[in-house]
Amino acid sequence: xxxxxxxxxxxxxxxxxxxxxxxxxxxxxxxxxxxxxxxxxxxxxxxxxxxxxxxxxxxxxxxxxxxxxxxxxxxxxxxxxxxxxxxxxxxxxxxxxxxxxxxxxxxxxxxxxxxxxxxxxxxxxxxxxxxxxxxxxxxxxxxxxxxxxxxxxxxxxxxxxxxxxxxxxxxxxxxxxxxxxxxxxxxxxxxxxxxxxxxxxxxxxxxxxxxxxxxxxxxxxxxxxxxxxxxxxxxxxxxxxxxxxxxxxxxxxxxxxxxxxxxxxxxxxxxxxxxxxxxxxxxxxxxxxxxxxxxxxxxxxxxxxxxxxxxxxxxxxxxxxxxxxxxxxxxxxxxxxxxxxxxxxxxxxxxxxxxxxxxxxxxxxxxxxxxxxxxxxxxxxxxxxxxxxxxxxxxxxxxxxxxxxxxxxxxxxxxxxxxxxxxxxxxxxxxxxxxxxxxxxxxxxxxxxxxxxxxxxxxxxxxxxxxxxxxxxxxxxxxxxxxxxxxxxxxxxxxxxxxxxxxxxxxxxxxxxxxxxxxxxxxxxxxxxxxxxxxxxxxxxxxxxxxxx
Length: 549
Description:
The chain is of the alpha/beta class. It is built from 22 helices and 8 strands. It has a 6-stranded mixed sheet with strand order 5-4-3-6-8-7, sandwiched between helices. The longest helix is centred in the middle third of the chain and has 43 residues, at 208-250. The radius of gyration is 25 Å and the shape is globular.
């Protein structure tokens, strides 16, 4: 009987854990506002319009994102129907493939199975990776294509497989461009270029494979953009290229994020529970900059530097924008963990183990305290008590193993805790606070007919996705969406009065502040009935008190 190789065992474990971490229970939470329902609704409307090339929203073409993610969602619809599972299955699959890709990259870079294995586990169990793997966003799919491209490049470089590696580099970059735009080639291209310049090996890229790679890139990436330019012209240029790319450099879509420290702190926080290993690994690698770094360390530094150089100066900041560098952080943390913690070369690694274990020990206690203080968010106090107690016992077990100087079992316990919490989230009552599914089910039973549902900005996408009804936004004094939607946007008293007068009965899904504004502006002219309160969403019926003349 053939003996199973060590790398085969590692891959099997990584696949098994990825299925548990990313797929099991990922439909327990309804599709969330405002982004998951945006992507799902666009794919749903593509089905309605029988379109495979043009995304739609609210009945009109929309140009916020390229086509590839919508293709995946539509394929999910074909296999599983228009369900949350259909939308979330492909991000989960890409997350699984990303973990395997990182393992392959770690093997090529470190030349050690152990470092590659722990790096892949660190990536797959970090909080942002877990969150994006279980939700419908472009960022994880886009970032995985960048990871695949850089894995192909470095594997080709390190293993003398230049032709295949360079060709795959361009193929995966092209798919990244189809997922989120020109950054799909800019990020991996600059990382590879900076690495080769640093290593004084720029001639590596001048080869027939690069020519054919560019040909494949053009064949894959260009046709969809050419189609959109031909059919939508200036509208596509104005929205996709100017508004969604150039404008974000100079205008903050989320002004409270526009701080110099946002990315450094978000980066470390979103690698939790490996935050301290990441910080220590970064400190270690940058200390060695004055000395001669290994080729792989140079590659990782270039990876970090390029992503930061691109996104840090831009005023629009979201942590998901820098998600492409998280695989590099996982590799740095995995290297540090094996070198300093598993090997027990220094007491510093043990201190980090203590700190991580203590913080994880606090999480179940915090959840239990939150359940007592905010019982509305938890469906069963007893269930939460049991889960919190089990979480505390597991976290305490990690602390015991750290005390016994057994970092390996402590590591696996720490890696499993956050996925377990995410799987248990459906047992809480948080669903009504993040999704419009329940209010939409209620509205679907009302005689709405052809009337327009008035929604707060945060709820309008979800209400439209679940009900299919026409909708308008009411947010007094608020700005329109960063990429305006083709629906009425009511942000003044005058616009609201005109809208209410346009139909005899108006159904609304509003937040509390919008309800207060509506009651103030409606005065004695309208009867406002609160039909339902689900989470923070008020379902209202607004009707004129006097008959129309």
